[in-house]
Amino acid sequence: MGKKRKKYSAEFKAKVALAALKNEETASELAQRYGVHPTMISGWKRTLLDNAAEIFDKNRKSQEQTEEVINELHRQIGKLKVENDFLSKGLGY
């Protein structure tokens, strides 16, 4: 049977990626110190760099999601109102 894959926490990945960004040690040295493959460190570093802007733009993203939810709820309210009016007329209310 093969080895089980290790799962690393987000905190650990961030810590290693930040250490890689400092360029104080090579990826091989970091890999040896943290017990991971240098390729993984490179991937985590790239992910950190690619997504760094989202950390500072968090409010805008959550605001857009809130607006989407509100718009969807308004659509549902409108649909339910139309159905309610139709059924009220059918029952003579």
Order of helices and strands: HHHH
The portion of residues assigned to helices is over 70%
In the predicted model, the low-confidence regions spanning at least 5 consecutive residues are: none
Distance between the termini: 70 Å
Derived structural class: mainly alpha
| Separate helix tally | 4
Shape: elongated
Mean pLDDT: 89
Number of strands: 0
How can the largest sheet be summarized? none
What is the percentage of strand-forming residues? under 5%
Mind telling me the C-alpha Rg? 25 Å
Characterize the structure shown.
The protein contains four helices and no strands. It is an all-alpha fold and about 90 residues long. Helix 1 packs across helix 3 and helix 2 crosses helix 3. The radius of gyration is 25 Å and the shape is elongated.
Short account of what is shown:
This protein has 93 residues and is mostly helical. Helix content is 80%, strand content 0%.
SSE topology:
Layout: H1 10-22, H2 27-34, H3 38-56, H4 58-91
Helix pairs in contact: 1-3, 2-3
Properties at a glance:
93 residues, mainly alpha, 80% helix, 0% strand
